[in-house]
């Protein structure tokens, strides 16, 4: 049975660390490309006359489940009533 030396262990750890860093860098590049694609779609929507602020709100709301959305709507309605906005 061969024993790993300290240099071997450090080499394995360094290789693993390098692999992790490279994977993160690659994913960051992909994330940036996707963010650019999303920006382009919002630009297209704006060019077609859609309100991008409203679209962003719709996207955020669609990520929530129905009960969370209803609770948020109820709180907003309560606050608007308290401030005489309704």
Q: Strand content of the residues, in percent?
A: under 5%
Characterize the main sheet. none
Note the run of SSEs as H and E.
Answer: HHH
CA-CA gap between termini: 79 Å
The pLDDT mean sits at 94
Spans of 5+ residues with little confidence (pLDDT < 50)?
none
What oligomeric state do the depicted chains represent?
single chain
Strand segment tally: 0
> What structural class is derived from the secondary structure elements?
mainly alpha
Note the total helix count: 3
Helix fraction?
A: over 70%
Using the CA coordinates, give the radius of gyration. Answer: 25 Å
* General shape: elongated
Keywords: Coiled coil
InterPro entries: GapR-like, GapR-like_DNA-bd
Coiled coil: 17-44
Protein name: UPF0335 protein QO014_002774
Give your account of this protein's structure.
0% of the residues are buried. The longest helix is centred in the N-terminal third of the chain and has 42 residues, at 6-47. Helix content is 83%, strand content 0%. The protein has 86 residues and is mostly helical. The protein starts with 5 loop residues before the first helix and ends with a helix. It has helices spanning 6-47, 52-63, 66-82. Residues 13-84 form the GapR-like DNA-binding domain.
